[in-house]
């Protein structure tokens, strides 16, 4: 992982519900339908919409909660 070996929501578990709520809001926000169009010569351009990133983060948050319950 980037910052630690913990999944999203495990570093600060008391904030997990707030993070989840904000991600759900982002997914529903029409502004997050914009596609990543970082400079055309940028090798990190994914051409994905912002809500795709929010959905991925939400999935990680839910998966980390389920993983913690199973351990």
Highlighted features:
48% helix, mainly alpha, 71 residues
Task: Give a short overview.
The chain has 71 residues and is mostly helical. The protein has helices spanning 16-28, 50-70.
Write the layout of secondary structure elements.
Blueprint: H1 16-28, H2 50-70
Write a structural description.
- The structure is a single chain.
- With 71 residues, the protein is mostly helical.
- It has one domain.
- Helix content is 48%, strand content 0%.
- It has 2 helices and no strands.
- α1 runs antiparallel to α2.
- The chain is elongated.
- The chain starts with 15 loop residues before the first helix and ends with a helix.
- The mean pLDDT is 77.
Low-confidence stretches: none
Distance between the termini: 19 Å
- Rounded mean pLDDT score: 77
Quaternary status: single chain
Question: How many domains, as an integer?
Answer: 1
Helix/strand-derived class? mainly alpha
Proportion of helical residues: 40-55%
Number of helices: 2
Radius of gyration: 14 Å
Q: Strand-residue fraction?
A: under 5%
């Amino acid at each position: 992982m980037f910052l630690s070996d913990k999944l999203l929501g495990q570093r600060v578990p008391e904030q997990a519900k707030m993070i989840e709520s904000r991600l759900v809001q982002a997914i529903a926000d029409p502004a997050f339908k914009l596609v990543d169009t970082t400079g055309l010569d940028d090798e990190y351009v994914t051409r994905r919409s912002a809500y795709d990133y929010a959905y991925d983060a939400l999935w990680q948050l839910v998966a980390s909660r389920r993983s913690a319950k199973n351990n």
